[in-house]
Design a protein that fits this description.
With 318 residues, the chain is α/β, with parallel strands linked by helices. It contains twelve helices and eight strands. It has a single domain, classed as Alpha/Beta hydrolase fold, catalytic domain (Rossmann fold, 3-Layer(aba) Sandwich). Helix 5 packs across helix 7. The longest helix has 18 residues.
């Protein structure tokens, strides 16, 4: 019988305070209620920024979807800066861009970058390929408008956590295959990339942790419907389906040892290396899914944030 890897003590303490949600609650009928409850947890942008020297502007990506975008930039910046193009998480069915505002504001202050935060349409109302195509459209808009946004279009990193990490990997594949923007890197934080959900790690965290196997399967089902787990799934929806890993931008892949995405994320890094590509992989001992959000004061989070910032500095030259 498989035994789960124990959580880091600080992570376990943080998880013990979370309210329990039944995995069966993640149905199409219940999603509006779950989304509203989740959105209520996120502070508005001005409240997050406070008196810190960060400017923000709101934009709409032209097109039928009218995608909303928030752009954060260092106050007083004059030179074109490196750019973080961010995609929020939520299992393809939950969340909004405000959930990542604290992470992005911190990176803008630390690295002097511009951060572009996209709002994509969610499943099941907008199933695959809508989410990844929305995110790719936002990337094209970002690069085309680089001059007025104060960013260097040659120094763009696509990033995201969980579903956002999976979408970021899908966007990197699309950019390569369509001859799109040449990305400086892809920052993939515990990315959701394997719809088959059959790994050892996935089975270890059935019914356990903040994103158990049952909820993950619900997310893939909302995105893909009956195609989930079949040969009809695109590599852009589930990047672990990719067969060619050459020509991808350098990757930073982070995952906890105590979460269901561990094995698929490790394998993704290994396949990039097998193709002669560049990938930096961190498997944080005892980290749960999204541990930096649940245990922000843990030593594990401190060293993980340091590693991310170091990689971004090296890739962006900031």
């Amino acid at each position: 019988m498989l035994q789960p890897v124990p959580f880091d003590p600080a992570v376990a303490a943080a998880l013990s305070t979370l309210p329990e949600t039944e995995p069966t609650a993640y149905t199409a009928a219940k999603l509006p209620e779950l989304r509203a409850a989740m959105a209520a947890q996120f502070a508005p942008v001005p409240a997050v920024i406070g008196d810190r020297p960060v400017d923000h502007t709101e934009h709409i990506v032209p097109g039928p979807a009218k995608l909303a975008v928030t752009v954060f930039s260092p106050r007083g910046s004059r030179e074109p800066a490196g750019c973080l193009y961010n995609i929020h998480g939520g299992g393809m069915m939950l969340g909004n861009r405000d959930m990542d505002t604290p992470r992005l504001v911190a990176l803008v202050l630390e690295l002097g970058v511009v951060a572009v935060n996209i709002e994509y349409r969610l499943a099941p109302e907008h199933p695959d390929p809508v989410p990844v195509e929305d995110c790719y459209a936002g990337l094209l808009w970002t690069v085309e408008n680089g001059a007025r946004l104060g960013l260097d279009p040659d120094r763009v990193v696509v990033m995201g956590g969980s579903a956002g990490g999976g979408l970021a990997a899908g966007v990197a594949l699309l950019a390569r295959d369509r001859g799109g923007p040449r990305l400086a890197g892809q920052l993939l934080l515990c990315p959701m990339i394997d719809d088959t959900d059959t790994s050892v790690a996935s089975r270890q965290y059935a019914g356990l942790g903040p994103w158990p196997r049952e909820v993950n399967r619900a997310g893939w089902a909302q995105l893909l419907g009956e195609r989930a787990g079949t040969d009809a799934v695109s590599q852009y929806a589930a990047p672990s389906r990719a067969t060619e890993f050459g020509g991808l931008p350098p990757a930073f892949i982070e995952v906890g040892s105590a979460e269901g995405f561990r094995d698929e994320d490790v394998e993704y890094a290994s396949r990039i290396w097998a193709a002669g590509g560049r990938a930096e992989l961190h498997v944080w001992s005892g980290g749960c899914h999204g541990f930096d959000l649940y245990a922000p004061d843990a030593e594990l989070t401190r060293i993980a944030l340091t590693a991310r910032a170091s990689w971004l500095q090296r890739v962006l030259g900031s």
